Structure formats: C-alpha cells, structure tokens
Amino acid sequence: MRVLVIGANGNTATRVVRRLKEGPHEPLAMIRNVEHRRKFDEMAVPTVLADLEYPIDHAVQGCDAAIFAAGSGGHTGKDKTVLVDHIGAIRSMVTAGVHDARRFIMLSSINADVNSQSRIPHYHKAKAYADRHLQESELDYTIICPGGLRDDEGSGTVSVSPDLHVEGTTSRENLAAALVMCLDLDNTIGKRFSMLEGDTPLKEALRSM
C-alpha cells in the first residue's frame, strides 16, 4: 500500500514515516518546503512538494491511502488554523476521493467540537468541522483524537474511548504507532475515538474499537 503522509515534516508525522518505512507499506512524505527533503532522503523515503492551501492532486495520485498529520502549528494565527486544519484537511479528503485513495487516517484532537468554548476554540472548531466532513464522506476513515502530545518514549499502552470530552496526554510514539496500525485494522474504519496514555496494549485497545 502506498501511503501519503500529509504534513510529513511535523514531529508526529516524521515518526509516522519512520514506522511506515519499517513495515510493509510504502510511505510518500508530503512536504511544503524543499529544505525538508534532506531528512527524508536520509531515510530513503520519497517526497512530494505540496501545500494544503493549494490543489494537491499531484501528491495524492498513485496513492492507496493517506494519513493526515498536518497542522498550522502553535505559532500561527487563527487564519492559518482555518486554512490548514479545516479547509486544507477537507481539500485532502476530497482529493483522496477523486484519486481513489480510499483509506484515510485523520489525526484530530480531544475536545474537537464545533461549539467549542475551550482555551483554543478556533483550533477545536477547525478540527471538528474537518472530522465532520470526513465522517460524511465515502472514504474508509479512522479519526484518532489524542490528548496533549508528549515527546517521551511511548509506553505502548493506551486508553481509547468514543468520548472525546476527556483530559490527558498522549505520547507521540504511541500516536504514530496507532496511526500506522489503523491502516490494517478494518475494525477501526468508520470510527472516531480519543486516545490517551493508559494501561491497555495499543493493538488490543485498537482492536476493541
């Protein structure tokens, strides 16, 4: 399976690319800046230059699946959040449907809600609108909603729930592993769930969804 990793240069997405490279699937790293290419060249992973604020057909063509792990980042304005996390995400879904990349894994967030009144409502609303569009699409989707992201080594154990209004943290390693693992877990198709650190082995937890 050829898998397009959207937002590949990000902290979590780079971990996704590494895990894909170690497994049976063929990763294609979608990057926005040519300067990011060197990192993936060193990993022997092909790259494609594309920007979510513009058409990305050339990136999606020939792919069987996509993992959306892009984000506007914590240092940009609300406008970029809308352009990337909301509109850009929807653009990637529509393009995936057009080019028959039917398996679509979405990295979302706990507390994603179109009526959010959180500390960062623009972010949670953008994520929620993107999630809603994906749920209404004909793609074989899985939506994983992590908590606050940590950079430490993943424990390999998590807690999953259909309840998104929760509090907690998620290691990026566990998250990257879950995003990749869901590609081959058909029981996660059509599911949207939160994933926090917990006591259940990751694969067992995902199989329970």
Describe this structure in words.
α1 (11-22) packs across α6 and α4 (78-98) runs parallel beside α5. The strands form 2 sheets. The chain has a 9-stranded mixed beta sheet, sandwiched between helices. The chain is an alpha/beta fold and 209 residues long. The protein has one domain: Rossmann fold. The protein has 7 helices and 11 strands. The longest helix has 21 residues, at 78-98. 35% of the residues lie in helices and 24% in strands.
Short description:
It contains seven helices and eleven strands.
How are the SSEs placed, and which strands pair?
Layout: E1 2-6, H1 11-22, E2 26-31, H2 37-42, E3 47-49, H3 57-60, E4 65-68, H4 78-98, E5 103-107, H5 121-135, E6 140-146, E7 148-150, E8 157-161, E9 169-171, H6 172-181, E10 191-197, E11 200-201, H7 202-207
Parallel strand pairs: 1-2, 1-4, 2-3, 4-5, 5-6, 6-10, 7-9
Antiparallel strand pairs: 8-10, 8-11
Helix pairs in contact: 1-6, 4-5
